[in-house]
Amino acid sequence: MSEIRIDITELKSEGSDLIKELAEFIKQKTGSEVETAMDEIIVKNEEENVKRRYLRVLLKKFLHKNELKDYFRVIGGKEETLVVKERKISEEE
After folding, report:
1. Residue 24 within any structural domain of the chain
2. Per 3-state DSSP, what percentage of the chain is helix, strand, and coil (rounded to 5)?
3. Who's near 48: CB < 8 A, 6+ residues apart?
4. C-beta of residue 18 within 8 angstroms of C-beta of residue 35
5. pLDDT tens track, the chain, 93 positions
6. What sign does the dihedral 58-60-62-64 (CA atoms) show?
7. Which domain, by its residues, includes 11?
8. Number of domains comprising the chain
9. Please, are residues 5 and 82 in contact by the beta-carbon 8 Å criterion?
10. Phi/psi class of residue 19: alpha, beta or left (left: φ > 0; alpha: ψ in -120 to 50)?
């Protein structure tokens, strides 16, 4: 059984409804068991059918669909972890 974690610490500022929506989106697309913990979403699957790279694409699609692509980005964390980071927006004057 493999497990991939998605760190959503910074995404939580957008509200818990968005987190539930994200968990549901991942569950629909992958058919895996999705668990929402305190600061992360855990994707559990029996076989190695869900790859980290595919999850990264799904996260990017989700951010784009919810018009958050300009504010957040998806980066690889430690082994079997993805992190949704807030983009540093430089204020130009």
Report:
1. yes
2. 35, 30, 35
3. 2
4. no
5. 788 999 999 998 888 899 999 999 999 998 889 999 889 999 998 776 778 899 999 999 999 999 999 999 999 988 889 999 998 876 555
6. negative
7. 2-86
8. 1
9. yes
10. alpha
